[in-house]
């Protein structure tokens, strides 16, 4: 009714890339579950986990393990979000 579009932005925690124990089955289940719910509800999904995974050094995308993103991480996330929204924003101007 408000004329807008909801987008889901998935921001990954640092352990996804920095854990000494490798991939977490629980974390992957949550990730797939969130993607499935978004898909079932037809909510566009902006996957920052995928963007970060393609970076040659994901450790630099966090201030330190368990913390928020570093300035570089936030810049990469913001750029990915802007790129995903660009067709929508351009169409509405």
Descriptive notes:
Strands 1-2 form a two-stranded parallel sheet. It is built from 4 helices and 2 strands, in the order E-H-H-E-H-H. The longest helix has 21 residues, at 71-91. The two termini are 20 Å apart. It has helices at residues 15-18, 25-40, 48-53, 71-91, and strands at residues 8-10, 45-47. It is mainly alpha-helical and 93 residues long.
Question: What key attributes describe this structure?
Answer:
mainly alpha; 93 residues; 4 helices; single chain; two-stranded parallel ribbon
Architecture blueprint of SSEs:
Elements: E1 8-10, H1 15-18, H2 25-40, E2 45-47, H3 48-53, H4 71-91
Number of helical regions: 4
Poorly predicted regions:
none
**For the largest beta sheet, what order do the strands appear in spatially?**
1-2
Based on Cα principal axes, name the global outline. flat
Q: Give the helices and strands as they follow along the chain.
A: EHHEHH
> Strand portion, in percent?
5-15%
Structural class: mainly alpha
Profile the largest sheet: 2 strands, parallel
Number of beta strands: 2
What is this structure, in a nutshell?
The chain has helices at 15-18, 25-40, 48-53, 71-91; strands at residues 8-10, 45-47. The model has no long low-confidence stretch (mean pLDDT 88). It has 93 residues and is mainly α.
């Amino acid at each position: 009714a408000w004329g807008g579009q909801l987008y889901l932005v998935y921001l990954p925690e640092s352990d996804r890339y920095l854990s000494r124990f490798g991939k977490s089955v629980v974390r992957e289940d949550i990730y797939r579950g969130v993607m499935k719910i978004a898909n079932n509800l037809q909510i566009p999904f902006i996957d920052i986990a995928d963007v970060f995974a393609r970076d040659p050094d994901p450790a630099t995308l966090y201030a330190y393990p368990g913390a928020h993103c570093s300035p570089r991480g936030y810049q990469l996330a913001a750029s990915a979000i802007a790129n995903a929204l660009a067709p929508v924003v351009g169409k509405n101007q």
